[in-house]
Amino acid sequence: MIQLPDAVRDLRARILAEGEVIGTDILKIDSFLNHQVDVRLLEDAGTELARRFAHAGATKVITVEASGIVPAAFTARALGVPLLFAKKALPSTIREGFFSSEVRSFTKNRTFDVAVSGRLISPADCLLIVDDFLAHGSTVQGLLHVAQQAGAQVAGVGIVVEKGFQSAGAALRAQGLEVVSLVVIEEMREGYIRFAEEAAPELRSARR
Amino acid sequence: MIQLPDAVRDLRARILAEGEVIGTDILKIDSFLNHQVDVRLLEDAGTELARRFAHAGATKVITVEASGIVPAAFTARALGVPLLFAKKALPSTIREGFFSSEVRSFTKNRTFDVAVSGRLISPADCLLIVDDFLAHGSTVQGLLHVAQQAGAQVAGVGIVVEKGFQSAGAALRAQGLEVVSLVVIEEMREGYIRFAEEAAPELRSARR
User: Fold this and answer.
1) Cβ of B82 and A32 within 8 Å?
2) Which of B37, B43, B49, B139 to mutate: most A Cβ within 10 Å?
3) Size of interface A-B (CB pairs under 8 A)
4) CA dihedral sign, ordered A83, A195, A6, A55
5) For A82, which of B37, B77, B120 is closest by C-beta distance?
6) Do A85 and B37 touch (CB under 8 A)?
7) Which residue from B38, B42, B77 is facing A39, i.e. has the nearest CB?
8) What percent of chain B is modeled with pLDDT above 90?
9) Which of B29, B43, B70 best tests the A interface by mutation, with the highest count of A CBs <10 A?
């Protein structure tokens, strides 16, 4: 029997207990991940991501405000490196001296820029990208574009919850990136969630 | 001689070493506080705020996205309670079932709403408000308004850096709130920062 890391087991349990699936592609877990935050759970998640990327030589952890900040902060703390959070901004407000990239929000159906001060990333950096969700991957692509502009290396991508049925994870891996997702959801609909790497899909107790 | 807590001493040292004062009211400390984050420093800051509010019976720590999230997360972790971060939103996008309050950003010279899901605060809650900066206090007033709508108690207000020369801290204290600011700046201009409770103001090495 495969032993799951505690952080993964606890995340799955909380998703099943408190998650709400809306339609077939929105998972609402704002009671512990991205509005209210169970800090201890996210500390364990960040620490687990740090463990999985301990070999990668990251000099900084980078995320995008706001909901990536908590897991990214705990990953950075466990690796002993600074956290950098890209600002979301309207394209018109990006100032000189910033690296920026346009990102499409599918949930909110609009476009914004992610921006990082040019003073804070250099070619000497190796960036570990961390985020709470990976779905369409536009945020990660924006951060990759920022890293490229700075001439920085990318250590990999660490994700708390990946929607495996959307294409982003596969696309990033096909680009040669190491992507670690603590929880991968293969399929979901109201009242049903199936995680990846589970032999026996079964009906779950997620609400709705 | 007064012994400062380590977190306070370290914050002051970093402000003097890396802060940039722009004009007489903008302090740019984005190399360790609100863009890049020295996670260890903010962990110490959050832990110190938790220590100062250990008596207050907080059931949740509340902040506003994005730069309050790291200190608030470490405060919540030290207190063993959840973190709740209010979303910034355009007034038109606030959904039903949310408590919200209009907040004026003086730095950005615009107005936005802070919003918290009505499911996540109840009259049984006692909220500790934490933020990175206290200047005009409009964010804190917005969170107080949200707490009031929910019928929740407020344990107090914990701040990493207060601009003591602006009116907000005094106004909140006059409302009967316990406000703890780890660092209070009494006066600043290019190249000069004077902290509160220092007997001998002296020229500092803050850049610019």
Assistant:
1) yes
2) B37
3) 91
4) negative
5) B37
6) yes
7) B77
8) 83
9) B70
Give helix then strand counts, H and E, for chain A.
5, 11
* Helix/strand/coil for A156: strand
| In the block, residue with structure tokens 């000497």 | A124
Contact flag A40-B77 (C-beta cutoff 8 Å):
yes
Q: Which helix (H) or strand (E) holds A173?
A: helix A168-174
Complete DSSP assignment for chain B: -PPPPHHHHHHHHHHHHH-EEETTTEEE-TTTTSSEE-HHHHHHHHHHHHHHTTTS--SEEEEETTTTHHHHHHHHHHHT--EEEEEEE-GGGPPTTEEEEEEEETTTTEEEEEEEETTS--TT-EEEEEEEEESS-HHHHHHHHHHHHHT-EEEEEEEEEEETTSSHHHHHHHTT--EEEEEEEEEEETTEEEETT-SS------B-
Closest CA to A46 of B187, B39, B84, B46: B39
Nearest in space to B180 (alpha carbons), one of B134, B145, B139, B127: B134
* pLDDT single digits (tens) A147-178: 999 999 999 999 999 999 998 999 999 999 99
The answer, yes or no, to whether residue B4 has pLDDT greater than 60, is: yes
- The B residues from 19 to 58 touching A (CB cutoff 8 Å) are 30-32, 35-40, 42-43
For residue A61, the one-letter residue type is V
> Quick check: bond before A196 cis, omega within 30?
no
Per-residue model confidence as pLDDT tens digits over B21-60: 999 889 999 999 999 999 999 999 999 999 999 999 999 9
How far is it, in rounded angstroms, from Cα A1 to Cα A195?
16
Q: Which residues of A touch B82 (CB under 8 A)?
A: 32, 36-39
Residues of A in contact with B67 (CB under 8 A): 65
**pTM, whole model, 2 decimals?**
0.94
Is the Cβ–Cβ distance between B186 and B24 less than 8 Å? Answer: no
Separation between Cα atoms, residue B187 and residue A109, nearest integer Å: 44
Name the strand (E) or helix (H) holding A129.
strand A126-134
Residue B71 main-chain phi, psi, to 5 deg: -60, -40
A91 burial (CB, 10 Å; 0-12 / 13-18 / 19+) is exposed
Q: Residue B170, preceding bond cis, omega within 30 degrees?
A: no
Alpha carbon distance B199, A41 (integer Å): 44
